Amino acid sequence: MIFQHFNLMHTRTVAQNVAFSLKAAGWERSKIAPRVAEILTLVGLADKADRFPVQLSGGQKQRVGIARAIANHPDVLLCDEPTSALDLETSATILALLRQINAQLGITIVLITHEMNVIKSICDRVAVMSGGKVVESGEVFDVFAHPQHAFTQQLVSHTLNLTLPERLREHLPGQLLKILFIGDSAEQPVLSEVAIKFGVAVNILHGKIEYIGERALAF
Known about the structure:
Layout lengths: L13 H11 L4 H14 L15 H13 L5 E5 L7 H18 L2 E5 L3 H7 L2 E6 L2 E7 H6 L4 H11 L5 H6 L9 E2 L7 H9 L10 E4 L2 E4 L1
Parallel strand pairs: 1-2
Antiparallel strand pairs: 3-4, 5-7, 6-7
């Protein structure tokens, strides 16, 4: 498990923190040091093996936590808000490392987070919880493109910033339409084709394209 606040033993070095999980799992003593060295290389901390947690940055501490969690060859890695205590740049590097671990080691990653951008950047599937219950689940792209539950719709709307300013809604005449483009259609000149075909003027008040995985979601 990877914790939000690292939970490292401050009186032990980086290598000793990682080795602790192997000792607790009953590994043979002769196999622990080579495994620790292998894992620290994987997480980019080979040169920090003899450092103490107080000498590390927040991102480096989380890398130690990741190394400790995967040292014993788990099938599933549970991550509890692994980036919420980190800045944006450091969070991106930690998420990239988790993607690498998933691809390279084949470990299933279960990630608990309230950060929707984290879900968009790393997850394949998502389960949305409200009131202690799972209210919606599915492929990440599908949940963002077609949220079914009211709570999910609220989350997605807030994350994608789909709401127009009140001033526009009050003072603009006529009907305001929201158009959603999914997948390949997001990269096609749909609006210009509509203007030409029907002889109408189209005014865009707000728009953006989000890429979730490798699929486009435009609105």
